[in-house]
Structures are given as structure tokens and as C-alpha cells.
Amino acid sequence: MARKSPLTVVALLASGSLLLTGCSVTEDVSGWWSETFGDASGPPEVREEFPYVREGRIFQDTGQDTEMRFAVTGLERTDEYTVMRYEVTYLGDFSGPNRNLSMAHTLVDPLTGRVYREFLDEEGLKYGSESPNQDGLYPVHDGVTNEYVRYFPRLPDETAQVTFVGSGLGAMTGIPVQDVEEETPGPENPNGADHLTLDDPPPSGENLTFANRRPDEDALADEGWVQSFVDSEIASTTRDGDREIISLHSDVMFAFDEASLTEEAEEVVRRAATTLATNVDPDDPTITVIGHTDGIGSASYNDNLSVERAESVRDLLAEEIGTGYTLEVEGRGMDEPVAREGGPDDEQARARNRRVEFSYVFDDTVEATEEEYDDDGLGTAQRNVTWPAPFSDDPGSVVAEGELDGVRLEIYPLRRDGAYVIGTVAFTNTTDEPLVPELGGTEAIQAGGPEQFNKGTLGGFQLLEPEAGLVRYVAQMDFGEGRYSSFAEEVHMLQPGNTYDLVAVFPAPAADVEELTLRAGPFGEFEEIPVEY
């Protein structure tokens, strides 16, 4: 029942208000790493301490951006599904139908990078709590708690806790998975249909509940992987599911219009051989060497040149890596550019597109190392995985801030979560008028940078390791068939005087990296942002 078709965007409104998501339960994480792990020999103990609650301001399509309380009250793994139970309470005043503008509800395994979304029917309506009129709309009343149930694909047995995103209130880390023989029954007497209008709220202290619809044969759910991108002047690494692609930038590999390796390039390939010997899955030891060119010249000429360059790299790699591997060669010419040519950064874009790649299935049993990165830039291929972050509703203290065109940016410490780091920032509209800040998108793409990892309004944000020269882009969620979702919250219309917390998720640096530089698009660079556990 894996979903393969594009998702239908569902408006979750109501004749009296709206519904949607959030997170929390405060936990002091000071000294958590050393106290929990000691010698880092095992995972932290997973404790069930529901509910997990968060409060904050969410974007709504009407601009009535009110405060919301979101509580995860259960995450049950049955033989068939993962069942999420949560409650939503709106703490401020609003009227009429509204829609939460957050991303879709998503469960993320921060160790493996697997992502899961809710089961939908053929019309795009969610299973679980049914809207009273079966149209995706729910009644919501000020100060009244709505209870909801949603179904996700069954999480693997080894997944003990997940990160939840999609509430509009950031990433909720450390949500434990509860193994149950049977899911908690739905409400015996759902009352949601009895209170559809603003002038008919439920009695004081009574929650709104809804009839439950379990998934049937028409149920479809998206499953995918977090896709990450790490870059340097020498190489870049893209990781998507169990496949890894190391890309060597051709401008340090070949002279113009040549297929013979330079002396510098030979040394880079030798270092790449060492990396590949460590990373390639021994059960699937095929390495495909792929040549690419820019868009200058004819297609046939570039096809031939890309093959010749890939063959040169393959021949040297074969000498260095030894036996036990199957080396294949492909030339894709100008057919798969990663950067858009013809714009103001045309030279950088073409340089980005001229590359040779190693594509392979990586060995997920290899443990991360705390050794320093090599100066040749191949540290881009190092995987850095710590344990999942414990839950916290406190982003910490502001460590840097800036202001641009009436928008104040506040930056909180970066927080490790498995194979990723979560960046939390706050935007405040300091003017008297609603405004949308100019962030991300093509305007904030680093010259010649890959467009795939610059989508979304925080897509222009990056993390830089100054000493290693490595740049970490905002991650994507890949659901197959060319369907991607940025692993960052969108920035919508900021209402006057309002503050909004948003997150962007990046691939994690090595365990010994304690500070990074945040490239915050048009806000500029902010150095020495701490990385915390």
C-alpha cells in the first residue's frame, strides 16, 4: 500500500475554525550525552512519558496566526500500522474557516533516514478521525481541545523513537514508539458532529472527538528517505536511502577539453578509493563511475567526452581499490545538470555540472569516526550518526541575531538528532504591516549550487565548517518518482509584531564538531553557532 502518486493537498478547516499540529514536555538536556551514554556504547533508554507537548504560533491562510498547543498522546505500533494520537488546542481568538500552512505530518527515523506519511484514501482524505461532513473539515472552538487519530505505515521493529514534523511548531524529537497488541479503541460517543458552528461549543471541559476510520484496501501512504547533500571545493556527496553518490568536480580533475587526469586529480582519486573501500556495501560491491559535462558543445561530443573521463577515473580506481569490486562506466554528457546554466552565475553552474561521480550502495554498518576531515574535501562522504535527540520544548537561548527589511532573525543552538542537526530560528515582523521576507529559493542559491537542495524558503540556508571547508545544505525528503519535500518549514506572511519559530534540518557533522557557521541567505553569515546534543 505504498503511495506512488502525488499527494492531494487537503484543507483542514472548519466552519468555526481550524485544526492541525505541534509538540512538547520540557526536559533538561544539560549533560544528557555524558550521563546517558558514558562511553557512548549504546543507545539512550527510551521512556514513555506521554503527552509530549509544544506551544507556539502557527501560520494560517487567513493571517489569523494564533497560538496553538499540540500534544502527542500516543504512538502505537501494531501488527499492521503505526497509530498516532494527538490533541490540538487553540489558545487565541480567531473566526471563520482557517487552514494551517505547515508541511504534511511526517514521522522520521533519525538514525536510518526513513520517512513515513499518513494513510490517505483515493480522494486525499486522511484515515483515522473522520471529519463530520467527510470533507476534510473539522469544527474548532477557541480554548477547546480536539482529539485526533492518524495512521502511518508500520515502523520497523528496531525503530524505538522517531522525530515528528508537520505541526507548524518545529521538529518534535525523541517520540517513543509503543508496541501494543491492539490499538487504543476510538471514542465510544464522538461528539464532533454535534458542535459544528461557533455558536454551539461543547460544554466547558469537554473535548471534541470524532468517529474513527481505519485504513482499508484503498489506503495509500508515502514512504521515502531523507536525502542529504554535503559539498566542498573538491567533491560533494549526495545520500538518498541506501545509495550514496560522491561527485568529484571535474575542474580539479581534467584540463579543459581533456580526458587525462591531472596529477592533482590522481591523488584525489586515490583518496576516493580509500573512502570507497570503507563505504561500499560488501554485499553489493558495484561502483558505477559516471561522467557528466556542461551544456557547451554538441550532445554527441559531450557524450563521448563524459565516457572518456569516466574511463580514466575507472582505470586509476581499479589500480587503487583492488579486487572484490565490480566497476562500471556510464557517460551521461549534458543530460543531467545539477545547476541551472545560462544565468548570472553561468560559469559556476557549468563548473558544477562538469563532474565525475561514484554511485554505490553504502555499508550502513560502518561506524562514524571522530577523526578530522582530510584537506582534500572527501570528508563530504563521512557519515556522522549519534543517538536520537531526547524530547525538549526549549530551543535554548538565542546565540545570534540580525535584522533585514523589518524582519528580525534570532538563531538558537543547533541540535544533533541521529544523522542530522536541527537548526531553529525565529522571525519577528517588527513593522506595522504584514510582510513576507525575501528568503531562499533561486535568489539565495550559492553560485552554481544544486537547485534540488535550495527549494523552500529556508533552502538558501547552509551550514559551513570553516576549517574543513564543508558546506551542508538543507536536507530533502525523497518520496520517489521525482517527488521531494524540503526538510524545513516554509516562511509565510509574517503578521505585525508576531514571532514565529521555524526549523531546517541538515546532515550532521562529525561528533567532535562543536561550532558551525550558519549561512542565513540574505541575512548573511553567523559564525560560531554551537552544536549541542
UniProtKB/TrEMBL annotation:
**Where's the OmpA-like domain?**
241-364
Which cellular component terms (GO) are annotated to the entry? cell outer membrane
The record's annotation in PANTHER family points to: LIPOPROTEIN YIAD-RELATED (PTHR30329:SF21), STATOR ELEMENT OF FLAGELLAR MOTOR COMPLEX (PTHR30329)
Where is this chain's protein located in or outside the cell?
Answer: Cell outer membrane
Q: What's in the keyword line of the UniProt record?
A: Cell outer membrane, Membrane, Signal
Q: Which InterPro entries match?
A: Bact_OuterMem_StrucFunc, OMP_bac, OmpA-like, OmpA-like_sf
Q: Which residues form the signal peptide?
A: 1-26
Predominantly, its location class is: membrane
Q: Matching Pfam families, A to Z? A: OmpA
- Full protein name: Outer membrane protein OmpA-like peptidoglycan-associated protein
| Coiled coil spans | none
| Stretch list, region Disordered | 180-205
